[in-house]
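Priority: low. Protein: Meckelin. Input follows.
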Amino acid sequence: MRKVFKRHAIMDSSLFILEEMYAKLRLVQKEEESHLKSNYNCVELFGFLVSQITSEVFFIDWERPRGVIVSRSDDSTFNPVTIWRTYIVANEWNELQTYRRISCFFQLFVVCVLLKVNAVIEPGFRTTAPAASAVDSVITFLVERCFWDQIRNFVDLCSISNISVLGLQNHLYGFYLHGRSVHGYADCDIKEMNDKLQREKACFCFRGLEPNSEVQSFTVYLSDRFRLQYDRISRLITNGLDLKECFTFVDGRKLKLLILLDYSEQAFTKLFFFGNEFTLFTFEMSLFCYVEYLSRNVVLAAAVTAFVVMIVKKLREKGGIKNLTRTSLVDARFLL
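Result:
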């Protein structure tokens, strides 16, 4: 509460009157603070889900026809490029949409065990030992580098399949994953594929967009003119019209005008749950604390949190499949 003084001036005299007024500001009570934080986190999660399921994905197949089909008549056509490589990449993209770095259910189980069995009240507990961070770094390295790394595996799949991915987080901003094969084509037998991989292993060729570069992940800033052409081509593809007049060759020099290098190689994961772990973790943590504060029951809080996490994941899966089908024109029956 603070005092505010208002001055009144009388025109026909030099008398000034000071009127004392009070401006009242109601502070949030301690009991209401947890409710407000929980509501804010719910609103943040809702906006996050909307942005996730409204993003746009476009697969660019660089494969060209190899060979000509000769018929009995004089007409001859090029051997069409198969669509199966695009279906495989789209299916992997769909699986990565809800892939996470951590396991929420395992964390809830560990929290319940610790709070129920090994919970010890230690006021003023503090530690500065670097052992915890060192162990965490070692575990992260072993899990992501030595055992599996789904993000890098997807980048390798795009390079082998000769398919690039353009993912737009909003209307004019997104990410470009360069997957154009350095060998020129991807449809080959197993011997040719092994020879290609051995050449890459020996550093005879590089997968990056620029010469002698391994950078394949880029941040994209589109212009309004480029966006209009993108929407025009999308409408033509949706309507099933002839696209020969729309096709053009885009080389690296033109792409450099639209993209910025991203040396993290994982910026495009912002389109997935994987790149938004902090948002999801804070929501789950606040929900667990809120339910535990109301019920005073750790097991109930963990059960409610796990149930909400399952619902959020299902909504993301269903919305992601519909959005992927709409923007990439991949039939939902191929998204396993």
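Residues 30-68+76-118+148-222+258-334 form one domain. The longest helix spans residues 298-328.
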